[in-house]
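Re: the 339-residue chain
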Amino acid sequence: MSKQRDWVNNAIALIKADYQRSADTHLIKLELAEFNHIDIYLKDESTHPTGSLKHRLARSLFLYALCNGHIHEQTTIVEASSGSTAISEAYFARLLGLKFISVMAKCTSPEKIALIKRYGGQCHLVESTDMIYEHSERLAKQLNGYYMDQFTYAERATDWRGNNNIAKSIFDQMSLESHSIPNYIVVSAGTGGTSATIGRYIRYHQLTTQLVVTDPEHSVFYDYFKSADKTLCSTKAGRIEGIGRPRVEPSFIASLIDRMIKVADMQSVNMMLWLETILGYKVGPSTGTNMVGVLQLAREMQAKNQQGAIVTLLCDRGDRYLDSYYCPEWVKLNITETP
């Protein structure tokens, strides 16, 4: 066996061992007096080693690239990311002893940039989000590296049939609950990888659960879901970090989604602040976006005298956003009541 193949085998073993050391994320049941017969759960993805849902994606992307022969011992990894995916990819790059560069917009929170650097990654900042793709591709070519391209490969890097993905984890953890098959699973989309994994899993296992995706202002996913127009683009920058996109990403598979809910950015922020009072700790703004959709669905169910369960994701903790979404002055300057 070649030295290169030995290195790849060892790299895969390191990632598997890292996974083995990490317990599954918790499923938290919210006690909300407003809903007597509707159970609401948060899948707390902030408990991953790198603190967010994107830890799963980064692990899958590295394994996918390794098994497809794209990453070798001296490969520089380049990614287009607003923060959380880059943090997780920097972690795995360091685990494998690889150089990592994240291409992101200058408006990314300083806390996320600091976390990337903590794991040994470098940050290549560009003026706007729509520039990250071209710069990432060009940088990878210049360095003879590998552009991870989460926005293309997120929907195919994870085994949606099982293999310890997030969908299997949710349904396994729900198995002893009063309503073991939730009426809805609510997620937001950045790449579309998580919604694709969950949507495919639901269909493969012939479950009745509906997949609902929430979308923030200035993102085109909601309009694409309604129109099927892949050419849609937004000229305005999204203000809820990590979710929503100014273009239709290749990994966003609308046919797997049962319903989408558009959420105003200020609603996301207010819900994020409200959740802190319920949980006792801060969560990120995308979790607020998710919960706006959850409560809308719960009230619809209640109006129809329906019982059941709704599951959503706690995507990351709020300590990454102390200088932004948790700063009233920043919110006043950057988030408005209307689009």
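Residues 61 and 228 are 27 Å apart (CA to CA).
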